[in-house]
Specification:
The protein is an all-beta fold and 115 residues long. The protein contains no helices and eleven strands. Strands 2, 4, 5, 6, 9, 10 and 11 form a seven-stranded mixed β-sheet that branches. Strands 1-3-8-7 form a four-stranded antiparallel β-sheet, with no helix packed on it. The chain is globular and about 45 Å long. The protein starts with a strand and ends with a strand. 28% of the residues are buried. The model has no long low-confidence stretch (mean pLDDT 94).
């Protein structure tokens, strides 16, 4: 059984910052990569950022230069530092862990950017 627990969401004003965390636990023997996705009301879930075990990162064009993904392998935790937040970043943010053969999702954490 694998569990992903996200934290760090909340309400922030435009231009502000938040740091999301996702801690993985359970029977994890190998990880391909971890990532963050988001889903805004009425929209499909979209990829935001990803990071491989080796540290290679990728970002959606809409967040490049503002968001930074990182990971602590020993803690099996992935982070998403979000700066210069915009109202259009408002969404439920989900963490995903991809292991050989399957993927696991967290329960999501709400991020609301509003004045």
């Amino acid at each position: 059984q694998v569990q992903l627990v996200e934290s760090g969401g909340g309400l922030v004003q435009p231009g502000g910052s938040l740091r999301l965390s996702c801690a993985a636990s359970g029977s994890i023997f190998s990880i391909n990569h971890m990532g963050w996705y988001r889903q805004a009301p009425g929209k499909e879930r979209e990829a935001v950022a990803g990071i491989t075990v080796g540290g290679t990162t990728n970002y959606a064009d809409s967040v490049k230069g503002r968001f930074t993904i990182s990971r602590d392998i020993a803690k099996m935790t992935v982070y998403l530092q979000m700066n210069s937040l915009k109202p259009e970043d408002t969404a439920v943010y989900y963490c995903k862990l991809v292991a050989p053969g399957r993927g696991y999702w967290g329960q999501g954490t709400q991020v609301t950017v509003s004045s």
